Amino acid sequence: MTQDFRLENVGLINRNIKLSFKFNGKTYYGYEGDTLASALIANGVHLVGRSFKYHRPRGFFGVGVDEPYAMVQLYRNGETEPNIKATEQELFEGLEAKSVNCWPSVNFDVGAINNFLKIFLPAGFYYKTFMWPKSFWYRIYEPFIRKAAGLGVASIKHDKERYEHKYEYCDLLITGSGPSGLASAYAAAKNGARVILAEDKSRFGGTLLTSDVNIGNQTGKEWAESIISELKVMPNVIVKNRSQVFGYYDHNMLVMSERVSDHLPKTKKYHPKQKLWYIRAKEVLISSGSIERPIVFGNNDTPGVMLSSAAKEYLKVYGVLVGKNPLVFTNNDSGYETAIEFKKNGIDPIILDTRKNPKSEIVEEAKNLGIDIKFSYVVVAAQGYKKVKSADIAKISDDKEKLGTIENIKCDCICVSGFWTPTIHLASQSGNKTKFNEDIDAFVPGTSKQNEKTLGAANGVYTLAETLKSSLDTGYEVSKKITTNSNKVSFPNVVEKKSTLHDKFWCVPLPEGKNYKRFLDFQNDVAVSDIEIALREGYRSIEHVKRYTTLGMATDQGKTSNLNGLQLVSKIENKVVPAVGHTTFRPPYTPVSIGAIVGREVGKHSKPTRKSPMHSWHEKNNAVFVDAGVWLRPRYYKKGNENLFEGSKREAKNVRTNVGVCDVTTLGKIDVKGPDAAEFLNRVYTNAWLKLPVGKARYGVMLREDGIVMDDGTTTRISQNHYHMTTTTAQAANVLSHLEYYLQLVWPELNVNVVSTTEQWAGAAIAGPKSRDLLQKLFPNSDVSNEGLPFMGYMEGDLFGVKARIFRISFSGELAYEVNVESDYGNFMWEKIIEIGEEFKIQPYGTEALSTLRIEMGHVAGSELDGRTIPYDNSLEGLLSKKKDFIGKRSLNREAFIADNRQKIVGVVPLDKKTSLPEGSHLVKDAKASLPNPKLGYISASCWSVEYDNPFSLAILKNGKNMIGEKLFVMSPLKNKVIPVEIVSSHYVDPKGERVRS
Amino acid sequence: MLYIKCPHCGMRSQNEFSYGGDASIKRPELGKETSNKEWDDFVYNRKSPRGKHWELWQHLSGCRQWIKVERDTATHEIFNTLKANEDIST
Predict the structure, then answer these.
(1) pTM of the full predicted structure?
(2) Best of B61, B64, B86 to disrupt the A interface by mutation (most A CBs within 10 Å)?
(3) Would you place residue A931 in the very low, low, confident or very high pLDDT band (cuts 50, 70, 90)?
């Protein structure tokens, strides 16, 4: 294909690099610096997709973020991405794109039948039609609508690209590098402020690239280039292109998405695809410019109907003609600028101006160039299905109500200009109270809530001289808040053509007997008639009209449609626009990819991974790991072809018969120090702590103020004013915050300090009947006999030259010890234990065996202390001191907590002694009762008892204390199981606790 | 994301902090007889004001100090921050 619509020697593209790309399977060529849109138009392609509801042919309407419908499915480097705007996607070698929302092809789309049924698809059609019968919704209506609607297709593959997050601080963030952005950045930076200048396009300069102006002795484009090259080398300035500031959040936090690699065929090694910048700016200057708004007329969605500013940019930046026989339809001077550019490049445009007799320099120039201008003329309707072929035009009366005789003139594009709408999205998001400016028929920023100011066209200022003056002044003023310097930039001489007033005209009336669709929102197919229906049906609030008709709710968020929608509502309602008000602007200003929002926090990076010092030993010894919070813990150590069940059973059995060792480094550890430490523990824990001697450990339970168990663990008195507290792995962080809360806020008079020592100590639990023999060999110089180190005793020892802490505490219910050494010696300790334990048949055991051992002993853990149980529920009521007050005590006499049939922990054994009970199953009296079957309790933890070689579970059961011996049923609807069971004591093994004391 | 002035560390982003609820709540003294209503008010009942509100935040990923923050719950404006031992009435 040849680029028939490409001009020679015009534009900023690089003609030395020719790029090939595919659209809907066909190969085309473009140049470096093109967008997909400009390259397609250069090749004469205007049909890019089908509309959302009626599947009407759609082409290009804008040239950047304003584009409402030219969206494609993009294929890049083996990945695919939906709903990419062809007007924003830069061309690269090998780019592939396809149309969305059409089947089987964009040229022949079955869904287009909706277009001919459009009288049946007005606003609210779905709400009204698909209501009855109710049962049809899920089976028929919803699947049908889902298939018919929607745009591109999201990839279901893992995204291999990298997305990054970055935090940045600056004095001044400037959004947009048009004249106001460049001038304010320059003025502020020259005076020493730290500036970030963000531009969403690849080229800096905004309208300076396309307008016929002079600044100083340079053209607008040259001035922009000189300013930007100077800014780029200043150390206090960050200049970013392809970067869209899309959200303005609290306390001057703005978020910007930088498309680092989307313009390349492939992301470079070590580069991210996109980067999300969180920018905390002291001041923000919004210089986001304005978006041209359309004039509404019949069939105004036909491919070839386009914003006049877009046509100008395609011509001046990309050297591309959107048509060779253009019609410019305008209510202001901007359309003339486009026509003049056409004329200068040998194309003869026709201008239709709704105004009667405008007088300005620009109009004069157009007249002098011999352009055919028809005043008081409008386009009534575009003609042509897949591309504009002609236009029905007519004279319009002075009151803009009556059309003259319809004439048809040939044209291949209609460039429409309905004046300019300031881009106030960011200002509005910041909390700025916007106001309506009658002169420009649009909202502009009003009173600021945060530290922001809006400049230039975004503020409704449309002359270059005024824009530059106010921007230079504002940039300097802002810098003065930060620095005492006074380096002021002088104001350059500006040459621009003067324009005159625009015509407050936005919608062409329908001619007698015609029922053209006149679209307001092109992406969601909302036409004038839809708004009329909504109002006729009683919708009044603009927020309701928006939601009923979906006006402005598409991915372009109504950038080109909102104001015309407001005009229509205000006209029908006979109100002024500000009385109708605008809908709320919410971030993001443009769509942001989910990948960028998630950043690097995917897969195993979604949370940090913590490993114990013995981790590499576990790895070498075939440990199968399990996530325990952020920790990785061995679940079991696989021998041969063992599965989890077999392995954990072997390990647990070995603890009961010989000796095992378990890595307990992950347990939370907190140092509690200070003269009031004992008093503090006495308040935090439910049991008594004042009389715990040095060298002794005690088990404790702490509550929340509402009486619910928060955590449990042992705390050891290391010395007079020094306690070593342990917490469960999961609650370590919460417990520390909890202690800090009471020390800092509630009882600041207590002289106590707490600090986490979890990472400072490596821990090994040595458990089993032979554990004392092993310990004696590890510490030959210490007396670890039952008298020397009794149950709940503590001593320090010397582990082959390494200082160790030895605690005689037990979670497994066996004779057991915990040895702690400084983390760096963790692996040394572990290897010594394994080496010396060999003669006692030691085996390491993982969390699965650990659970088995504690469950059959009836020791509670996280699955019972789940934030819903009180001490009684866990049979811990014996630990509640009657003599003292403690955190949460007052709550324990709540009615439900002291009810006679209060839930309590019990043991559960299946009658067949074979079937394991799924955790989370319900306990019921009658398996066949009608639903909802009253639930008596639930299985909290299950294991295979190695002591009795049958399944055993713990359960929290209503009236548990009186249920021992009862026969119930365990029901798991999830696993489709009903298992008859007997309730037994939760202390299934060694109920008197003799082993730990042996 | 809020920008909170920690009285110990200076301006820090919200993601370094965790929220701790109403700062005006005083825990009844230990061992003191309390009526059900008093205790309920302490444990459960909270006003949910629109506007200025003194609340607790902990500078979790910083100095770990609990601080008091006067924030407008509607606009997120922060008027004042205090150390744990400073009284909010001052």
Answers:
(1) 0.89
(2) B64
(3) confident
Domains of chain B in start order, with CATH, are 1-25+49-90 (3.30.2270.10)
Nearest chain A Cα to B29, which residue? A746
Domain enclosing residue A374, as ranges: 294-418
**Nearest CB partner across the interface for A740, out of B2, B13, B64:** B64
Q: Report the CATH number that the domain containing residue A123 is assigned in CATH.
A: 3.10.20.440
Indicate the residue among A597, A620, A650 that finishes a domain.
Answer: A597
* ipTM value > 0.85: yes
What's the pLDDT at B15?
94
Chain-chain contact of B65 with A744 (C-beta, under 8 angstroms): yes
**Helices and strands: H and E segment counts in chain A:** 24, 50
Nearest to B34 among A280, A886, A890 (CB): A890
The angle formed by the CA atoms of residues A476, A482 and A485, to the nearest 5 degrees, is 60
In a domain, A657, yes or no: no
* Tens digit of each residue's pLDDT (9 = 90 or more) over A93-121: 999 999 887 666 667 666 666 666 655 56
Residues of A in contact with B35 (CB under 8 A): none
State how far Cα A77 lies from the chain centre: 24
Cα diameter, chain A = 114
Q: Do A253 and B44 touch (CB under 8 A)?
A: no
When mean pLDDT is compared across A108-117, A450-459, A554-563, A855-864, the lowest value belongs to A108-117
Of A251, A741, A748, the CB nearest to B3: A251
Question: How many Å lie between the alpha carbon of A741 and the closest alpha carbon of chain B?
Answer: 7
Question: Do A934 and A978 sit in the same domain of this protein?
Answer: yes
Q: In whole angstroms, what is the distance from residue A41 CA to residue A64 CA? A: 14
Has residue A634 been placed in a domain?
no
CATH of the domain at A199: 3.50.50.60
Q: Is residue A459 part of a domain?
A: yes
Strand order in the sheet with A377-383: A377-383, A390-395, A407-410
Left (φ > 0), alpha (ψ -120 to 50) or beta: where does A414 sit?
beta
The tens digit of pLDDT for each residue in A591-624 reads 999 999 999 999 888 889 999 999 999 999 999 9
Instruction: Say if residue A587 is in the same domain as residue A446.
Output: no
Mean pLDDT on B37-47: 96
